[in-house]
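If you are new to this repository, start here. Below is one unmodified record pulled from the training split, so you can see the exact layout before writing a loader.
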Amino acid sequence: MGAFYLWCAQAGNESFEWHYDNGGFYNLLGRALAAGHLYLPLQPSPELLALPDPWDPRRNAGLGTLDLVLYDRRYYLYHGPTPAFILFTPYRLLTGHDLPEAFAAFLFCWLGYLFSCGVLMRFQSSPTVRPSPRMFALLLFAIGICQSVPYLLQRVWVYEVAIAGGYLCISAGFWFLARGALPPRVEPTSLAFSGLMLGLAIGCRPHLAFVAICAGVMLVWRLRRERSFFATLRSRELLAFTLPVAACVLMLAAYNYERFRDPLEFGLRYQIAGADYRAAVPARENLAPGLFYLLLCPPDLDPVFPCVRHVMRPVPQLPQRYFLEPIAGAFILWPLAAAALAIPLLLKRFPNRPAGAFLATMSISAAGSLLFVAALGLVSHRFEVDFLPSFVVAACCLSGAVPSGQAVRSLLVVAILYSMAVNLGLGIQGPYDGFVQGHPAAYTKLAGWFSPVASFRPVFNPRLTMEALYEFPDPHAPGAQPLIAAGRFGSRYLLSAESLGSGRLRLTSAGAVTSGKTVSVEVVAVSGTPNRVRLDYRPESREVIVQWNGEPVLRHVLDFLVTAPAQFVAGKDRTGLDPEPLHFLGRVEVISRLINGETR
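And here is the target side for that same chain:
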C-alpha cells in the first residue's frame, strides 16, 4: 500500500526534487519558521498594496497570490501550521532545502494508513472476533483504498498537505486512544500521545477539534465506569489526555494572535480568494446540498477506462454563494458507511461496551466533520478525507462481529470489492487527470490491461480522420456547438463552432481542459446546403488539421491525445464535466471515420 501511495504521489505530480528550493506554500512557512518569524518570505506586489481594499476579488485579479492571507502588508498562510511544525521546518533546518510537498503528503497518508491498520489490529486481535487471513487482508486493502486518499495524492498542493496532515493526526490519535482506553487497562502514556495527536490535528484542519471533543467525552465515559464523576475529572488518565490537547489549542491561539491580534482568527477574513469561497462560514442553506454532494452524489459511469468519473451535478436552488468541484458521495464510495453511522444507535448491543463506545466515537466525530464541511458551502472530493477514513475503519472493525453466515460474508466481500474498484478508478484520475497528462503512454498501457473491448480501449496518439456534413439550424443557435470530439477531460480534444452572425462562424480547436491551449479561426457558412468538415490528427507531429468545405483553415499542435475509438464522435461532446453530453443542434451526417487507417 505504501508503494501504491508513492506511485499516486508521483503519477499526478511533478517529480520529486530534493536539492533545491522548489517552493510550495508549506515550504514557505517552513522557511519562515526556520528563520524565526510567521510571515511568509514572499513580498506582496505594490499594486496590490495600493488598492483601497486589496481583498476585493473584483479588484485584485492578477495582483495577489491566490489563497494566501494578506495582513499588515505581509503574506501569511491560513492553512494550519502543524505540517510545517512537524515536518517542513525540521527538514529545512536539517537539509537547508525544501521538501517536495507531494512527498510530504505521501508520507502523511502512508503513516496515517499504518495507524488505521493498527486500530483494526487492536480490534481484531481477540480470538473470539479474529477474521480469516483472507478477510483480514481484504480489510487492510479497504482501509488503504476506500477512503479517497489515492485521489488526494494525485494532485498535491497546499490544500492536500493540510488534509493529509489531518488524516495522519486523527489516525494516530485514534490508535493511541485504542491502546490507552480499551480493556484490559487504561494507559496514561498512550492517552497523552492520543491527546497530542488529536490536538495537532486541530492545527491542520480547525474543525477537527470535534474529534478531540468526542474522544474526551468517550474517555470520561470509560473512566466513569470505574470511579465517581469527580474522581474521573481529577484522574491522571484524563489529565494525560486533555493537557496535550489544551497545549496545542493554546499554541494555535498564540500563533493566531501573533499574526492577526486575535486568537480565534485563522486569516479567512484577509484571504486573497475568489468571490465564491472567500471568508466562507457555515450556513443552514448549505447543509442540504452539501450532504447530497458529500454522501449521495453519484459519479458518471463510462465503459472507457477507468469506468467511473467525477462530474459536476447541479441541484435545484443551489445557494448563490457556493463553491463546488466534481465529487462522488461517501455512500457511493463506501456503502458500509451506513453501518458505521448506525454504531451509536446499536451501542447497547455490543458485548464489549468500551469497544463499542470507541467505534461510536469514531463514527460521531466523523459525522461532526461531515456536517461542518456540508454547512460551509465548500464542496470538494478531497474534503471527504476529513471523515471518510473513520467511517471505513469503524466499518472494518465491525466485520469481526458480523455473523459467520456465508450469505452475509459474501455481501460484505462484494461491497468491499465494489468500493475498492470505484475508489481505484477515481484515484487513478485524481482531480484533473494528472496521470494521463504526465504519463500518457503509461496510462494507455495500464488501461489496456483492463479494456477487453477494442472500441473502449484508450489509444495513445492514434491517427484520426473524421469527415462529416453539418447542417446548421437557422437562425444559428447562440453559444458553441460541438462538431468533433475525442477523449475525455484531461486528454480530450474538441472542435466546436460558434455563430458570429451574418453567416460567419468561429471554429475553435481545444486540447485538454487543463492545458488551456486553443486555436480559433473565422469561417463563412454556406447557406442552403450542409457544410463539409474534415479533421485529421497526425500522431507523428501531433498536429490537427481542419478543412472547411474543402479548404484548410486551421492547424493546431496538441501536447498529446488519448482517446478510445468510441470517444471519437461527430456532433456530440462528452469530454467535459457535465453529466449529460452536449449535442449539435442541427443535422449531422458522417461521411468517413478512420482510426489508425481503419473504418470504425
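Two things worth knowing about this chain: The first strand starts at residue 69 and ends at 71. DSSP finds 20 helices and 21 strands in the chain.
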